[in-house]
Amino acid sequence: MLDCILNKDGTYLTLDDGKTKTRFHAIWLRDNAWDAATRSADNGQRLIALGDIPAETSVSAATLVGDTLRVTFAPEDKSVDYALSWLLENAYDRPANTQAGWTKPSVETWDNDLMSHLPVASFDAVSSDPAALQRWLGQIARYGFAKLTNGPIEELALMRVVKLFGYVRETNYGRHFEVRTEVNPTNLAYTGLGLQAHTDNPYRDPVPTVQVLYCLESSAAGGENMVVDGFRVAERLRAENEEWFNVLARYCANFEYAGSDDVILQSRRPMIELAPDGELIGVRFNNRSTAAITDVPFDEMATYYAAYRRMGEIIDDPAMEVSFRLEPGECFLVDNRRVLHARKGYSGAGKRWFQGCYADMDSLNSKLAVLETEHLAAAE
């Protein structure tokens, strides 16, 4: 049986089910009220500022009625109902993650074992079936990448892929870019050389968080695509040498691109990026675009380079890679904050033509959340 207990001054309450005690501060509860005077019924945005809530807010009464907790606040003498499911879903009274580099339960890191169950969907299915689109976007959110097959073999078909979830992010390369062999290329991506696994555009701030690569022609030998989970790389580095993990997370690297007229792009970010509470939120690794590293103290530079070298060795380890060949009408998407991608070298015989573009994870996550909400509503 669930009990609700107030502390003596009402500054917080405790929900106790006999096994777990979960506390909520009065000011947090009041700030997260969903009554009509506090939140817009149309969009859920707050109608008041924190300064409109008395600083001395406390709970004067709390009553459990079925699956609802009714709370009365002083000094406003205002009563608000909370769904117990919402409270427990948003509870913050829980053990903190103590190790730097933790990831959310919704994130699944991987190595080449994922080859046996690649995240993949059919273009026709995701274009016509919201449930199929939800599953595919969910794979991208969980694994950081996914393939799409049986798409149209036509120029700019990748725009139809992005339209499934969001919007193209235009850069100095344009709304899209061509990937095929060129004479005197401005970027090594346009040659037949193999490329080390990397995240794209680390010299931008912020980086494009989604990259789409769409195959239109692929008769040249070689050129298989590879992806590597940067989060698993970081986890492996931390397990091998925590000091190396920490030094790459503590200090910024410099990234730069100046390969075409009127463009000099620069950023200063760590190769392993953590949130203030230690959550692993990003990896930036691109040997072609790393500029002189100048923010590491002299006494730690040797350690930094040892860590940088080892990170590259882990990335290059075949046990970390998932590889696949894209045929015309196929594409893949990567979360560019997390998943590194690469390409094996290909010969000059035959043709190889890809088109690429950038988008962002916020629109992808938004579309996924909408589809999940609609699915839950339909199931009720």
Automatic annotation (TrEMBL):
UniProt superkingdom: Bacteria
Keyword vocabulary terms for this entry: Dioxygenase, Iron, Metal-binding, Oxidoreductase
A GO MF term: dioxygenase activity
Keyword Iron appears in the UniProt entry: yes
Keyword Transit peptide belongs to the record: no
SUPFAM superfamilies linked: Clavaminate synthase-like
All residue ranges annotated as the TauD/TfdA-like domain in the record: 123-358
InterPro entries: AlphaKG_dependent_hydroxylases (IPR050411), GBBH-like_N_sf (IPR038492), TauD-like_sf (IPR042098), TauD/TfdA-like (IPR003819)
Chain segments annotated as transmembrane: none
Cofactor(s) listed in the protein's UniProt record: Fe(2+)
PANTHER family reported in the protein's UniProt record: GAMMA-BUTYROBETAINE HYDROXYLASE-RELATED, OXIDOREDUCTASE AIM17-RELATED
Family: Belongs to the gamma-BBH/TMLD family.
Name of the protein this chain belongs to: TauD/TfdA family dioxygenase
